[in-house]
Design brief:
By secondary structure, the protein is mainly α. The protein contains two helices and two strands; from the N terminus they run αββα. It has one domain. Helices cover 49% and strands 8% of the residues. Strands 1-2 form a two-stranded antiparallel ribbon. Strand 1 and strand 2 form a beta hairpin.
């Protein structure tokens, strides 16, 4: 199941808000509860969310440049 960019951003925003409030337990949009053991673990989850958002925002390469010569 693919997650949309908006869902990723909403999840990341909620997780960041919980981290800044000092909350170690987080309830996601599906109602599932995740308990983090440390702030470092939450930081890793945020980094993973940032990476997923960056990957979702990446534009596909649609230009190919050819460099040719006659071999002389």
């Amino acid at each position: 199941m693919a997650v949309s960019l908006q869902q990723l951003q909403a999840w990341r925003d909620s997780l960041l808000e919980a981290r800044l409030q000092g909350v170690r337990e987080f309830r996601d949009q599906n109602g599932e509860t995740v308990a983090y053991k440390s702030d470092a673990e939450m930081a890793r989850a945020l980094a993973a969310a940032d990476a997923a958002i960056a990957a979702a925002q990446a534009k596909p390469v649609n230009t190919i440049l050819f460099k040719t010569s006659k071999g002389i």
